[in-house]
Amino acid sequence: MEYDYDDQNIFAKILRGEIPNKTVYENDHALAFHDIQPQAPVHVLIIPKGPYVSLDHFARDASPDEQAGFMQAVAEVCRLTNVDDGFRAISNTRTHGVQDVPHYHMHIIGGRQLGRMLQD
Ligand code: 5GP
After folding, report:
1. Residue among 42, 41, 23 at smallest CA distance from 33
2. Ligand 1 atom at shortest distance from the alpha carbon of 22
3. pLDDT in tens, the chain (120 residues)
4. Where are the alpha helices (DSSP H) in the chain?
5. Ligand 1: which of 24, 25, 36 to mutate, most ligand atoms within 8 Å of CB?
6. Which atom belonging to ligand 1 lies closest to the Cα atom of 13?
7. Is 105 in the active site?
8. Centroid of ligand 1 to alpha carbon of 101 (angstroms)
9. Torsional sign, CA 67, 74, 37, 92
10. In the chain, which ranges are E strands?
11. Helix, strand, or coil (residue 90)
């Protein structure tokens, strides 16, 4: 599998500070910010700072430090958003997964009862 990273994607622009974001948490390897079109009371996107297009790319090529930093951000977002009653973590991937932004991101969605995972 070849992963071709486009540094003009919107999350790359957010990482470079060219587009503002509402930051929830940041560390050396990851940034978490509120989704611009929230689907629930809690809807946060967590992205690595490195140039990875998707979950499988990140899992294959990110260093242990990058992966640990990302997972630390997941823990902090869950703590800061108080999703103690549960949440859904989603990483839409490429065409079948209907991924719109080609920079790896994990959605953390919660704050209300969610529907079943897949509708069709
Ligand atoms: P995807 O379909 O790629 O999994 O989801 C991309 C997400 O990024 C969508 O939920 C969309 O609302 C969000 N998004 C797109 N552009 C921006 C932006 O400029 N700022 C923020 N905060 N979220 C964005």
Report:
1. 23
2. 22
3. 999 999 999 999 999 999 999 999 999 999 999 999 999 999 999 999 999 999 999 999 999 999 999 999 999 999 999 999 999 999 999 999 999 999 999 999 999 999 998 876
4. 10-15, 55-61, 64-80
5. 36
6. 19
7. yes
8. 7
9. positive
10. 23-26, 30-34, 42-48, 87-90, 106-110
11. strand
User: Could you tell me if the CB of 40 is within 6 A of ligand 1?
Assistant: no
| Distance from the Cα of residue 61 to its chain's centroid | 17
Return the residue matching tokens 């919107």.
10
Residue with tokens 């930093």: 69
Q: How far is the CA of 53 from the centre of ligand 1 (A)?
A: 14
Q: What angle do CA 38, 44, 48 make, to 5 degrees?
A: 135
What is the 10 CA–ligand 1 centroid distance (Å)? 8
